[in-house]
Q: What sequence folds into this?
């Protein structure tokens, strides 16, 4: 019988395969924005409705939309993107409790490993919009913030959607600055809004001019 020490090194090939597929399938995607948020949000809820609007507005500005591919906020953003005729990508994670990819995707990739999946968010996004969520949402947000803060990517904007919800985080970050563990100049990612239009405009305004030139200004409501 094959023991653990013989079997375990082969895992690297499964990991490599996920990286290769992700790099290959998402090449040529163009400017894209990742949207993170709770999988539990319902269509009748305000944040779900606003995530639909954010997805639509991003497509109208010629962004592709990337989410985790599941239900809730992810589904809402993908819905807005697909109904606007845009590219709607889902990076679905394989879990013991099955997370099925939502029905508003034009492209879906399935991942076994969270760290590979997070790499695909980081590599293919020029901005991040974060709706209220749980552990996974916070993990994804601070992964992006850490990579930006350490200049491993970007600088790209990270926009927190929902003033009331994120006020506690704003207070925490102010406390960390006062404690000397975070620099005040490292808080640029913490932009908060309640407006789908402003969220998209904040992303666009933070991008380099060559990227903005390839985008389309928002018009109308």
A:
């Amino acid at each position: 019988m094959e023991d653990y020490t013989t079997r375990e090194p082969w895992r690297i090939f499964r990991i490599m395969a996920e990286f290769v597929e992700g790099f290959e399938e998402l090449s040529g995607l163009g400017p894209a924005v990742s949207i993170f948020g709770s999988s539990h949000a319902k269509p009748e809820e305000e944040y779900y409705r606003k995530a639909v609007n954010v997805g639509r507005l991003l497509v109208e500005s010629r962004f592709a939309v990337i989410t985790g591919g599941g239900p809730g906020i992810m589904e809402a953003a993908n819905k807005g993107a697909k109904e606007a005729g845009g590219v709607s990508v889902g990076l679905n994670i394989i879990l013991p409790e099955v997370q099925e990819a939502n029905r508003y995707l034009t492209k879906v990739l399935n991942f076994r490993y969270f760290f590979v999946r997070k790499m695909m968010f980081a590599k293919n996004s020029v901005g991040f919009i974060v709706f209220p969520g749980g552990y996974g949402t916070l993990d994804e947000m601070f992964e992006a913030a850490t990579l930006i803060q350490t200049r491993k990517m970007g600088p790209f904007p990270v926009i927190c959607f929902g003033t009331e919800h994120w006020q506690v985080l704003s207070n925490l970050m102010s406390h960390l600055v006062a404690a000397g563990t975070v620099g005040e100049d490292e808080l640029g990612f913490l932009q908060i809004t309640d407006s789908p239009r402003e969220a998209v405009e904040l992303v666009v305004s933070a991008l380099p001019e060559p990227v903005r030139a390839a985008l389309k200004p928002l018009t109308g409501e």
Strands lie at 32-36, 64-67, 88-93, 107-111, 127-130, 158-161, 191-193. Residues 163-179 form the longest helix (17 residues). The CA atoms of residues 69 and 139 lie 16 Å apart.
